[in-house]
Amino acid sequence: MSREGNLEAPTRHPLDWKNPDFYNEASCTKELERIFDICHGCRRCVSLCNSFPTLFDLVDETAGGEVEEVDKSKFMSVVDQCYLCDLCYMTKCPYTPPHAWNLDFPHTMLRAKAIKFKKGEVGAAEQFLASTDVHGQFAGIPVVVQVVNAVNKTKLARSLMESTLGVDKEAWMPSFATRKFRSGAKKSQDFAIKNGDKTPGKVAIYATCYVNYNEPGIGHDLLKVLDHNEIPYVLVEKEKCCGMPKLELGDLDSVNTSKEANIPVLAQYAKQGYAILSAIPSCTLMFKQEIPLMYPDDSDVKAVQEAMWDPFEYLIARKKDGLLKINFSQALGKISYHIPCHGRVQNIGRKTEEFLKLIPDTTVNTVERCSGHAGTYGVKKRHHKTAMKIGKPVFKAMANDAPDYISSDCQLAGHHIEQGMQENNLPAAELAHPLTLIRKAYGLK
Q1: Which of 56, 58, 43 is nearest to 88 (CA)?
Q2: Residues 186 and 308 grouped into a single domain
């Protein structure tokens, strides 16, 4: 008889996406029913995403209150609410491997999404929203960017985007930068490489689509922090989207295309002893977890996985090596800091919070709960209201004690929180990425 729950840490099995049975719809439906039946009997994850309330409502609406009575065609309504945050697997579920029930909710949702995509049931508008490299073609052309950004803020354009792309006209949307981060990044000074016991002494920056095309200031702040700490850096020679937006759609062939473009380049930096830093948690997680689970036997993927760091994970390890400057010259007052889901599931601990607490005369209110944004999920018409509902406890918690700054490692979540605080008439605070806060604390311009 299986014991109740796990005592061991969860073990993640590789994603068997190249097995023909992976796309067998009947087999997938059978596994969905098995997992949904376990989840229905547990209900521990009800406070996470909307997949679980949707599932439990479907079960509770049946005559006998059992999963087997739910119309199988409605299973996809549960799948569509999952944005692959992995929190259920990593922090809540008591039945993940090595438990005999071998429950992997997010990978089963991904399998169902992949089948849906293969069947051609994901529309062109959703595919376009997930094509960040395509959007990025607008960035860096000043006149074009100014026109596009201005038009995208008009009611007419937002209504058109809602009707054609399914983007809620009330949802916050990022603007494009007039100059891409990669083209405007300052070259590193010629510092000596100082390796520590825990950290390589040189860094390669994987810019990410968002930093490169939308908010290059985050990337520039990272470079200033590295420069201040005399850590030599380079920008990765060339890069493509990490593939996370396509993964969330179930478009695994496009994820493979991104992997084939990125991994050979990144692996060279890994083999040369660089720490590879990515300032967007979803991108970091893609190389630390999702791609390795798709390609468990690829040595280059493994090398990149081992070399990939969250910026604050690296900086705190640098401090433990005795190689980080903590000569902060500016207090930041009260900070409300949100830990993004894709940061939590990296299993690195609260490294950003730890760093912020090094700043004198600065207090940190840490909020560890999903903001509801989840990439493209929170901007879609059919999900935006749900995303704002999921985030409401976070909005309230972030407003506690009238902070001077609100901050999240995921800048998209930060903007979502800022919008939610405004809509709920909560005290206003300046939104700043944690790297920007550190730059300010160092007194750097």
Answers
A1: 43
A2: yes
Q: How far apart are CA 438 and CA 176, in angstroms?
A: 24
The residue with tokens 């005795």 is 322
Residue 358 sits in a domain of what CATH number? 3.40.50.1860
- Which of 197-210 are b and which e, b meaning 16 or more Cβ less than 10 Å from the residue's Cβ? eebbbbbbbbbbbb
pLDDT digits (tens, 9 = 90+) for 33-92: 999 999 999 998 888 888 999 999 999 999 999 999 999 999 999 998 898 888 888 878
How many domains does one find in the chain?
4
Separation CA 338–CA 342 (nearest Å): 12
User: Looking only at Cα atoms, what is the longest distance across the chain?
Assistant: 71
> Which of 165, 193, 223 finishes a domain?
165
Q: Can you name the residues that pair with 277 across neighbouring β-strands?
A: 205, 309
Distance of CA 316 to the CA centre of its chain: 21
Point out the domain boundary residue: 118, 137, 155: 118
Asked if residue 176 is part of any domain, the answer here is: no
Burial of 356-374, coded b for 16+ CB within 10 Å and e otherwise, reads: beebeebbbbebbbbbbbb
* Whether the predicted model's global pTM rises above the 0.70 cut: yes
